[in-house]
Amino acid sequence: MYAFSFCNPTRIEFGEDKEQHIGEYMQAFGVKKALLVYGSNRIKQSGLFDTVSGSLKVQGIDFVELGGIKSNPVFSKVEEGITLAKSSGADCILSVGGGSCLDSAKAIAAGAKYTGNLWDCFLNKTPITEALPIFDIMTLAATGSEMNGGCVITNEATLQKYSLYGAALYPKVSVINPKLQATVSRDYLVYSASDVIAHSIEGYFTAKVQPEIINLQVEANIKTIIKTTELCW
Known about the structure:
Blueprint: E1 11-14, H1 22-27, E2 33-38, H2 42-45, H3 48-58, E3 62-66, H4 75-88, E4 92-97, H5 99-111, H6 119-124, E5 134-138, E6 150-155, E7 160-165, E8 173-176, H7 178-181, H8 186-206, H9 212-232
Parallel strand pairs: 1-8, 2-3, 2-4, 4-5, 5-8
Antiparallel strand pairs: 6-7
Helix pairs in contact: 4-5, 8-9
């Protein structure tokens, strides 16, 4: 028998049109101003931005925007976000997008509370114990960042890709509406399916201790991803 401790404090709001209530979910935590992090302008073209911003306004939550997050997020954009969060007085981070947006949001949330160079925390594997509250609306199923306390960022200047972890990096609320994720292109459908499979087999092949029931769950997960992706294709 192997002893362990487990805690996942993230509240998952799963279902159709759940994104319409993001303002209510955030207001329950007493936040007043959000840094809204997203990738391309696709969320504006699709109307998702208007839905989100409208929900925030109804609840009296102000926000500033940080767009342009790209796949395999980079530290220079995180630094831009940290500066904006501090200068605007944001007291929380809201990510609308996929795992790259959320990973960036987590790093920004940590950096907004950190006085030094945040990259030192990546280098030293410093556990993050303080960060701005993090909220998210997922538009792509892939990394599982919506319910874990980690993020992975690339430093373009040093060509290093490192991770950051900490209890403070668990999102407070994650909104998952599968219909939003169904709007991605075929290419991104394949990318996300591949990503889910890759993350699933990481522990499968590398864990020193792996209960048989977990192995079976991983195998079932991979089979399900293949089957449902083929149906969508």
